[in-house]
């Protein structure tokens, strides 16, 4: 089946960064960094904010306090304009620089999310309400696409573990399955990639999903997520290749068996379920030893688990 299907655009990757968008806002970016620098909160303030009641509507929750555990020390944030205009979101377009121009008619408010499957308290809730329930925090993470480009961004959101605990998973639950909205009338890429097994789905083992690093992101750069980055809710799994970080989620389901995912279904040898970032394991068609930062163009070594081995290595140690 896979060879009847249009190949993913990333099979011809490595030449998608448009030089204008890379350098255009460089000055503005440096100014912004100066401002961000003064906006850092200390640990005490962060804890205080995290304990505050969570009734505020989403618009009032930005910018959220930065979690000092993930303050991005030693990392330089990627240019916000570049990350907003260089996107993988195949429901809209396979051209990264076009996605942000095609999301205009995509409605992300109101937005219903269903959290169900093998749990005692399944629920269906509007995204705004859900975001209002959890204290939001900012975390600076590395983000590594399987195509060997990377960025460093400040996400706003809350740990997925909190949401999962709130629905009380049953003991039979072993995996979590995530599904993106499927609206061909608003998402022109769906009709163009007819052989793809839409909707976009992804999955994690339950123990991976419960790891503190996994965020339900609701914002980026101190503001609510732009549609092209996965509004109103997306996943961020920083130690895995970018395609695991599924956008614009409508359903989160606790399941017993490893779920099928869009990319694994299309090309299991290239985009397997686990997909941990590993510089020693090349993609069948290119090396994963290094990566290109999308704003500066710098090539840097790729780190095992994308630099998060200390937090997640124990999940994969064979006993
Ligand atoms: N629904 C959906 N989620 C998706 C994708 C997609 O095409 N559709 N692309 C993935 C890939 S390959 C990457 S690298 C990231 C890109 O996220 P960004 O555009 O916010 O940088 O989103 C991931 N999530
Ligand atoms: Mo990606």
Structure described in brief:
This protein is an alpha+beta fold and 319 residues long.
Tally the helices.
11
Provide the β-strand percentage band.
Answer: 15-25%
- CATH homologous superfamily, by name? Oxidoreductase, molybdopterin-binding domain
CATH architecture: Alpha-Beta Complex
| CATH topology description | Sulfite Oxidase, Chain A, domain 2
Kindly provide the radius of gyration, computed on alpha-carbon positions and rounded to a whole number of angstroms: 19 Å
Mean of residue pLDDT values:
87
Q: What's the number of extended β-strand segments?
A: 12
* Run of helices and strands: HHHHHEEHEEHEHEHEEEEHEEH
Any low-confidence stretches, pLDDT <50, length ≥5? 1-7, 9-56
Helix share of residues? 10-25%
Query: How many domains?
Result: 1
CATH hierarchy class name: Alpha Beta
* Ligands: the ligand Nc1nc2c(c(=O)[nH]1)N[C@H]1C(S)=C(S)[C@@H](COP(=O)(O)O)O[C@H]1N2, molybdenum atom
Counting helices, strands and paired strands, the structural category is alpha+beta
Shape: globular
Distance between the termini: 37 Å
In this structure, how is the largest beta sheet organized?
A: 7 strands, mixed
List the helices and strands and how they pair.
Layout: H1 19-23, H2 26-38, H3 43-51, H4 80-85, H5 99-102, E1 112-117, E2 123-126, H6 127-133, E3 137-144, E4 149-159, H7 160-167, E5 175-180, H8 188-192, E6 201-205, H9 206-209, E7 215-220, E8 223-224, E9 234-236, E10 249-255, H10 262-266, E11 290-293, E12 299-301, H11 309-312
Parallel strand pairs: 1-10, 4-11
Antiparallel strand pairs: 1-2, 3-4, 4-7, 5-6, 5-10, 7-8, 7-9, 11-12
The chain binds ligand MTE and molybdenum atom.
């Amino acid at each position: 089946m896979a060879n009847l299907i249009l190949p993913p655009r990333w099979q011809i990757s490595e030449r998608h960064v448009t030089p204008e968008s890379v350098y255009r806002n460089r000055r503005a970016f440096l100014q912004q960094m100066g401002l961000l620098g003064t906006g850092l909160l200390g640990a005490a303030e962060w804890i205080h904010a995290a304990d505050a009641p969570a009734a505020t509507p989403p618009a009032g929750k930005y910018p959220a306090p930065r979690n000092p555990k993930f303050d991005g020390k030693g990392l330089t944030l990627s240019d916000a304009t570049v990350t907003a205009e260089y996107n993988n979101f195949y429901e809209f377009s396979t051209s990264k620089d076009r996605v942000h121009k095609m999301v205009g008619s995509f409605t992300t408010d109101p937005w219903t999310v269903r959290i169900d499957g093998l749990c005692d308290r399944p629920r269906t809730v509007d995204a705004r309400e859900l975001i209002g329930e959890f204290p939001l925090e900012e975390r600076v993470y590395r983000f590594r696409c399987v195509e060997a480009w990377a960025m460093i961004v400040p996400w706003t959101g809350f740990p997925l573990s909190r949401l999962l605990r709130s629905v009380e998973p049953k003991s039979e639950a072993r995996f979590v399955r995530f599904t993106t909205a499927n609206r061909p009338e608003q998402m022109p890429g769906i009709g163009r990639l007819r052989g793809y097994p839409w909707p976009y789905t992804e999955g994690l083992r339950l123990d991976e999903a419960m790891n503190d690093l996994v965020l339900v992101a609701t914002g980026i750069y101190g503001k609510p997520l732009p549609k092209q980055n996965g509004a109103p809710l997306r996943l961020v799994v920083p130690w895995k290749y970018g395609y695991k970080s599924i956008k614009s989620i409508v359903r989160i389901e606790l399941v017993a068996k490893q779920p099928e995912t869009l990319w694994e279904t299309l090309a299991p040898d290239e985009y397997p379920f686990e997909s941990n970032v590993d510089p020693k394991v090349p993609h069948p068609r290119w090396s994963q030893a290094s990566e290109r930062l999308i704003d500066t163009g710098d090539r840097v070594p790729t780190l095992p688990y994308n630099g998060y081995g200390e937090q997640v290595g124990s999940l994969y140690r064979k006993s």
